[in-house]
Prior knowledge:
Blueprint: H1 5-20, E1 29-36, E2 48-53, E3 64-67, H2 70-78, E4 82-84, H3 86-93, H4 96-105, E5 108-112, H5 116-122, H6 124-127, E6 135-137, H7 145-151, E7 154-159, E8 164-171, H8 176-193, E9 201-208, E10 214-215
Parallel strand pairs: 3-4, 3-5, 5-6
Antiparallel strand pairs: 1-8, 1-9, 2-7, 9-10
Helix pairs in contact: 1-8, 3-5
Amino acid sequence: MAFDRQKIVEAVKEAKARARAKPRHFTQTVEMAVNLKDIDLKKPENRFKLEVVLPHGRGKEPKIAVIADGAVAEAAKKLGLDVISGEQLEELAKNPRQARKVAKNYDFFIAAAPLMPKIGRYLGRYLGPRNKMPVVVPPTMTNLEPIVNKLKKTVRIQLKNNPVVHTRIGTEEMDDEELAENAEAVLSSVINKLERGENQVKSVYIKTTMGPAVKVER
């Protein structure tokens, strides 16, 4: 890979140091931006969506909602997850403001397969643009724990209209090396989707939620 691990670690350290220069009263997310070049996004084949499992997790548990009735809903409740029933889904269809709020407030959705047609009809316009369409499970599934545990370490990446991908790689409380490994996992996944690999990566930046961006040197 064109980016050396130590260079990524140095950028992470610098980004965290700059964030500490002006303390905030919350734990900041550490984010990465990968700028691409020589890619024609007018061609659909050059756009992509990715799910990357971060080796050291997201640093903060995501908010997960389960859209289901029956066995799947019961399995979700056992894990302490928020459940949206089929009936509540119908109500959201009549309240666009609330539907948008639901789409915004949760990081991931899990849905029982029989409800997917309604989800597509009622929530698709809000979930699709946010790259939050649900993970679909059978209506008889009684153990959601493996899916939930994977989602807790997952970030979704989308390359659509602009030649840049943004994603979180953890939080400022995480170890520098762990954040660097998470960054490498994202970079590797993005590079594998590019026709000419790392030659199409223009630059990479690391930043915290409120801090300035720090370039990863090559």
